[in-house]
Design a protein that fits this description.
The structure is a homodimer. Chain A has a single domain, classed as Mth169, Chain: A (2-Layer Sandwich), CATH 3.30.1280. Helices cover 35% and strands 35% of the residues of chain A. Chain A has two helices and three strands, in the order E-H-E-H-E. A three-stranded antiparallel sheet of chain A has the order 2-1-3.
Chain lengths: 79, 79
């Protein structure tokens, strides 16, 4: 099954990449785009039929590898 | 409103970053994660109340700045 992992910077963490994009957009006339935050969207093809087990393993992988718990938070979405 | 922009590599485009992550996961015992594709998840705070107009402007920004149409595809999701 395809599992979606969303990794975002925690709210209190500055996002210089997002701010740079916002500034470029403002310069191009998109002043209504007032804030940009950039995260990662990972799509995992995972073998397994038991959604609970798959979710648990992917969350483990997030904690171990896919997200940095100091500055990021993750969310796992199953189909 | 907060608009979600999802930018993914087109299916036929190789994703070396995703493949590197897959290999690391396999080395750690996550052999059931058979493929990883990495995209961007951008959260935009956009001024405006007309959902149709906001969507149209954000799609324009995607075409102009946020996605590379040669290798990427984007999707705009409104609340």
């Amino acid at each position: 099954m395809v599992v979606e992992v969303r990794v975002k910077l925690k709210e209190q963490v500055l996002d210089p990449q997002g701010e740079a994009i916002r500034r470029v957009l403002a310069g191009l006339g998109y002043a209504e785009i007032e804030q940009v935050r950039v995260g990662k969207l990972m799509l995992l093809e995972v073998a397994g039929k038991d959604a609970t087990a798959v979710r648990s393993r992917v969350e483990e992988a997030c904690r171990e590898v896919l997200a940095n718990p100091v500055i990021e938070e993750f969310e796992v979405r199953l189909p």
